[in-house]
Amino acid sequence: MFHIVQYQPLITQKSLSSICLKLMFSRPVAFAEIWKSWFSSHSLVGNKNIVLMGPPGAGKTTVGRIVGQKLDCPVIDIDDNVLETTWNMSVSEKLQDVGNEQFLEEEGKALLKFSASGSVISLTGSNPMHSAAMQHMKKNGIVVYLDVPTPVILNRLKSMKVDRIVGQSPGVSLKDILQFRKQFYKRWYDIRVLCGGDIAAKVAEKVLDAVKKYQNSELETFISTRSSTSGRSIEKDSYKYFSDVVTEGLAPDGGLFVPKRGLPKFTAGEWQSLIESTYIERAQVILERCIHPADIPAPKLAEIIGTAYGENFTCSKIAPVRHLAGNQFLLELFHGPTASFKDFALQVVPHIFAYCIPRSCNYLVLVATSGDTGSAVLDGFSRLGDADKQRIAVMNFFPEDGVSPIQKSQMIGCQKENAWSVGVKSDFDFCQTAIKQIFTNSDYTGFLAVEYGTALAAANSINWARLLPQIVYHASAYLDLVHQDIIPFGSPIDVCIPTGNFGNILAALYAKMMGIPIRKCICASNENNVLTNFIKTGVYDLRGRKIIPTFSPAVDILKSSNLERYLHLIANEDGQLVTQLYNQLENQGHFQLQKDLLEKLQQDLVAGWCSEEDCLAAIHSVYSTTGYILDTHTAVAKVVADRLQDRTCPVIISSTAHYSKFAPAILRALRIAEIKQNPLSQLHLLSSYSPLPPVHWGLLETLKKTGNEDHQVCAADMSMLMSCIETLIQNHFM
Length: 734
Fold this sequence. Notes:
This protein is an alpha/beta fold.
């Protein structure tokens, strides 16, 4: 419930305000002249207006008055000061007189004649439904959407005894109208303010803070994890913005980009306001907070998210949470087109990338994969429009003998006119290290730019944009448990994540920082258990270690790139320490955390690992008892969760891939039949076994199309990889 705040006149008396309002309709310039000299020295936004938009009952009028008082500027309520002045009758009388459709037209005409500057303007709930009027208001205004949950609005309207709003007719409820109007609000706003059940004074503070951030994009810049100075003392000319880090991928000093001021925090009320929201709505709200509108405006971001998740995922919930047994729940992340969690980022990132890059340059996106990233990158970038595909190509490097046969066939089948796969005769760590070395080789990147007009970019999780969509599904999973009445909001959960490159689990840690009540992140490894040892001892030791091929190849990784971002975080942005640690790792093959940092780390993380035998046994056991099939990576996490989680709260296990991507291991675990070598035959065998859940639709279709398609194979040699890159550039861009 809003507390009504007594409004005191600002500077002028009521009579002067009335004169000024009349001047707005006769001579807009005159009104501006009256206020110009006074307002220019007081306003947060200069001659711009702050335009408050939202449903009836959102508190626009009350919030507008408070904001105006704080800024010492005019406050204009469209209902009271414009419509009723123009019509010489109340708004309710006008609505009754002309009816819904004509009312919207008359309201729009009145707004088109209205002009102001340096004011706080409270729109009516129906103003956004008139396109021309809203375009007029946006020309000189920052539109702030007061986003209040529908149940809160309905309670307010009931207490205000409002039983009719514009558009209502017999058989149409207030709830239906409010839901219908959301599409119009989302079309026009520059800034969204989540209101929840906040009192008006609190909402006004949020509005002022949001406008300040909107006006100052320097508040949301990025630094390298290896920056030698603290984030708050970096020179202005070295700032990097979101669009910069998307296109550059890796920092010039070899570090990874992180936000200078950290990630945004959500209040408990703001998270609770998203409980009833869809996955796409949650993604929109969370990503808006993480991406400054100067980089991607809210309407464009909404378009990107809608395109990414609207039709490309087979489950309407996008990332559903399913109860497995006891206190264990599965977060199903395999409903995208390539059947793995990588789709959540890589259906979004290509569109973000295409929007952020300059139009005057061609880009080649490089990616290294341990299995799932490759097909997801190829699929995502192949869905760009024709014009973008002409200037953006992607090259995927994968260990030729280090992925499952189905993953390999999938990567070959996902090749398109702007997307290619290259098998490398080495392991994932070599592929990833090679890409990092290419990015930091200024002579080579400069040569590509001058000779071919082509810049390089990265699509691995070293790219900051890859991590943001992953934060969304961890937050959404928690909200789903609340929505399903499994837990009340505020109760803690644990999450257990099969972990290789540390990106997925880092996203969960970021969700925790942003206010999701995650107690512990359980890091699950296979026999390549360097992370398990590190989290337990603080010693990261690669000496004498070689990657062991396992049934869960996506976590067959020894050098976990995104761990660097987490160490930078717990070291209080000490870039010099991070540089020292990673130089030691590069030169000596190991490093050790000091005791205080290890204690910080262990407040967030616990870790365990799973053998190959235990992985297959878990798949068999879960299927025997529940009829559900875990993929090999999820089985690794299930085994570790069973061992480490204390069952005092729910644990959400990230199910990172569809089981059919790993058919040989599944067939072996379930003891079904002799394993055939042909990947398509393996899928058909799984399909024919009627007790099993269906194989993934996208995977089956891709393998059917693979046919005689081939791919390039390259030796584990830097010069050979660079030659492959030049050949692709010549073939695609020249």
